[in-house]
Amino acid sequence: MGEDTKEPPNETDLIGARVRSGDRSALAELFEQHRDRLLRMVDLRLDGRVRARLDPADVIQDSYGDALISLGDYVRDPKLPPFLWLRLIVAERIAVTHRHHLGAKMRDASREVSLYRGALPEASTAALAEMLLGRLTTPTQAAQRAERLLRIQEALNSLEPIDREVLALRHFEHLNRVEAAQALLISEEAGAKRYIRALKRLKEMMAKMPGGLEGF
After folding, report:
1. Grouped pLDDT means (10 residues each) for the chain, 216 residues
2. What is the pTM of this model?
3. Which domains, and CATH codes, for the chain?
4. Residue 79 to residue 38: CA distance in whole angstroms
5. Long-range contact set of residues 121-125: C-beta below 8 Å, sequence gap at least 24
């Protein structure tokens, strides 16, 4: 008989299997394993007006409580991989937080842009632009910051919603190719093509800005 070449499950797979069985300690491990990625998600999607009142870490903590409550439902119908289910729990907590703090102001179109199909809380173009621009240090760069942020926001708004969402998932939330495709309900190939296209268009638009791509 030939040797079995199937790779043994890694730590993430083992934790995921335990979560699917309803193991609450495994849920805590999964949450801690992905805490940084989930925090980036909150940073991207939490409205700036709420962030002034509430630390993103508090949203993450509340989400963990939500996940504990929802674990039984997930075990009965685990349609998503454990991390993507956890990410959805965080998204729902952000939406609840927005409704609580903003109410009717939640859809202020002057500050927010819709991402893909309304499946997640909206991400502000300001947050996306800040993450792209990063921290500028020299006086010349600092003087250009406001103008460049505005131009990056305009570039992001020019993308198709699904391309903007692919960019957010892959570049900012650090989802891999498989996770991003699963989150968007599209094929891996389609997601990869859209990601490359979005990056190319942003690069082209940024190159046309005063100062070009300097500082990026």
Report:
1. 60 92 96 93 86 90 96 94 94 90 58 42 67 63 72 82 85 89 90 90 77 55
2. 0.77
3. 10-106 (1.10.1740), 109-216 (1.10.10.10)
4. 20
5. 121/45, 121/46, 121/47, 121/91, 121/94, 121/95, 122/45, 122/47, 123/44, 123/45, 123/168, 124/47, 124/48, 125/152, 125/153, 125/156, 125/157
